[in-house]
Amino acid sequence: MFDSTSAKGDHVVEIKIPEGVDRGIARVWKARSEEQISGELIDRVLMARGIKPDEQGQTFLNPSLNTMHDPSGIPDLDKAAMRMLEAVENDEPIVTFGDYDVDGVTASAILIHMVRAIKPDAKIRSYIPHRLDEGYGINSDAIRKLIDEGAKLIVSVDCGITAIEPAIVAKKLGVDLIITDHHNPPESMDDLPDAFAVVHPRRPDSEYPFGELCGAGVAYKLAWRMATLDAGGEKVSPAMRMVLVDLLGFAALGSIADIVPLIDENRVIVKHGLSRIPTLPNEGLQALIVASGLDSEKIDTEAIGFRLTPRLNAIGRLGHAADALELMTDAKGPRAVELAESLSRVNDERKKQELAIVTQACEMAIEAGMTGDESRAIVLAHEDWHPGIVGIVCSRLVDRFARPTILMQRTDEACKGSGRSIEGFNLHAGLDACEHLLGSYGGHDMAAGMKCDPEQFDAFAQAFIGYANANLSADDLVHRAKYDCVADFSELTVQAIHQLDRIAPFGAGNGRVRLRINGLKLNGLPTVMGKTGNHLSMRVGPRDHNGPMLRIVAWNWAGYLDQIPAGAPVEVIVEPKVSNWNGNTRVEPVLVDLRVV
After folding, report:
1. Which candidate in 11, 73, 261, 413 could, as Cys together with 208 as Cys, close a disulfide (CB 3.0–4.6 Å)?
2. Looking at the structure, do residues 457 and 588 belong to the same domain, yes or no?
């Protein structure tokens, strides 16, 4: 036997070639071997995620629009689609009633664009409640106002599954209300709102095969069915097909922003929607891409999650989400640029306020003794905290202190705020246990909103922390780094990582690939990098022999430098990535966790 080596990035992969194979054939053998190595790694990752590396794996890696489920399987969806088409044909004024977050805004945009594609001069407009003045969901006063203004059909998006009273009001006033939602439905059909149609993939009577659509996903299914019903069959015109493909871009935005699991048809929506966003014929969205400093050809889930959705959400937190919807529907030319730049400025202000609240909340939590074992939850209130921002700050404190966190704005009239949880602690159940101390609350296992009388706040904080202490152990308050599988240092090749990228789009339910690499040693000390000096760069190689090294980037790890001895034997968990800096292609993983052996 003889050895042939292939340089990949910063290290060398050794490949065995049988004796008697000439050099020309050896090059072919080498390529096949590298492909086999990368194939074995992606197979292990798929199996770790419960996906068999056979036909199931190929379907997962190549999500097709043909695998999306028939929208008619969602209860009441056909009924809703036919009623909307009837309203369009008869020139009845239609109003979409949406939530003020990205999911609600994109869901409204989807239905508005579809109705206009069917009939450009259709009478359709939107209504989005003000976050602070009206709060989340459909309210009866808004229903009365819309009907007084002439609405003949009201269609909710991303809200309404618990709108019992508003549905009664609409029915009494003779206007059809269609509800489309994805939030937790009641357990009994008897507890659904008495609306003309209630479109929800997880209704108690639903047999729809996938219940994890976001609000924009449900709206997309409704738009799809409107298109086929209008066409009189399953096939639509080429022009309408292009509309449906373009609307996947809005559905992808909503899916990523609402952190629904990127599996099944959510994966299809996001995979194909991402590819449409750079070329969407929507001046507002393209202006936002420019204002966000993004290269439109490289938009992935991270670009959307960290650059686009914060801008779209910020206006709903500090202003009115109607501006975000206008950006996605009617804004053109200078108005599109003006709105996009305005959203960026509002987002900058949001970040300033968020940073100030984070700093203050951390200091208050530590001072109040809420970050030690004796208090397994954080509950705080302050007069200066903006109720539209405290939810984001809760997430920051959960990341830092690894415990459920509730933050509220205190005024003379009420304490109002949000909470975020950790894995294994049901936040909503904790609020249930304190129900007698709350004026109102709602949410789910990991996130919730609540309101209480200022005089009851201290009692609520004590009761909630007591519930957390009884239901969480000290071991629960430890961040845990999870990984897909163990990999060998030699498997980190450019080709293997490109193969792993096929598992994208990454997000909830389909996180970035994480590999554990054992048997490594550091080359000297890590070095500090970045303008602020918050990050580390380290070089590692196999512990059992001297050989090529690999650079690992460790974002926000500078604070741990004194805990990492020079030349130490280590094990790491990394997210494998390829760097293309200055035209040089090399493997450059990102550090998730490190252990000095």
Report:
1. 73
2. no
CA dihedral for 491, 495, 499, 504, sign (positive or negative)? positive
My answer on whether 244 and 211 are in the same domain is yes
Residue found by looking up tokens 């994805």 in the block: 182
Residue 314 exposed, middle or buried by CB count within 10 Å (0-12, 13-18, 19+): buried
Distance CA 105, CA 103 (A): 6
Same domain (yes/no): 266, 401: no
For 501-528, the pLDDT digits (tens) are: 999 999 989 999 999 999 999 999 999 9
Give residue 152's region: left, alpha or beta (phi > 0; psi -120 to 50). Answer: alpha
Task: Please give the biggest Cα pair distance in the chain.
Answer: 88
Q: Identify the domain boundary among 421, 444, 477.
A: 477
DSSP-based three-state secondary structure for 166? helix
How many helices (H) and strands (E) in the chain?
18, 21
- The strand ranges marked E within 358-465 are 378-382, 405-410, 415-420, 440-443, 447-452
Which pLDDT value is given to residue 297? 64
Compute the Cα dihedral for 555, 347, 266, 297 and give only its sign. Answer: negative
**Given 281, 298, 322, which residue is the final one in a domain?**
281
464 shares its domain with 489: no
Q: Which two tokens stand for residue 226?
A: 């409107």
The CA-atom distances, in angstroms, between 565 and each of 522, 538, 569 are 9, 12, 9
Torsion of CA 131, 77, 143, 321, to 10 degrees: 30
Give me the helices (H) in 50-188, please. 55-61, 77-89, 102-118, 140-148, 164-172
Cβ-count burial 559-578 (b if 16+ within 10 Å, e if not)? eeeeebeeebebbbbbbbbb
- Calculate helix-pair angle for 309-318, 102-118, nearest 10 degrees: 100
Domain total of the chain: 3
Residue 165 maps to a domain: yes
Do 137 and 179 touch, CB atoms closer than 8 A?
A: no
- Do residues 407 and 534 both lie within one domain? no
pLDDT tens for residues 286-326?
999 999 998 766 788 988 998 999 999 998 888 889 999 99
Pairing outcome for strands 197-199 and 569-575:
unpaired
Q: List Cβ neighbours of 257 (8 Å cut-off, separation of 6 or more).
A: 101, 102, 103, 106, 304, 305, 309, 312, 313
* pTM (2 d.p.): 0.87
Range of 417's domain?
368-477
Residue 75: which of 229, 202, 171, 184 has the closest Cα?
A: 202
In Å, how far from its chain's centre is CA 255? Answer: 6
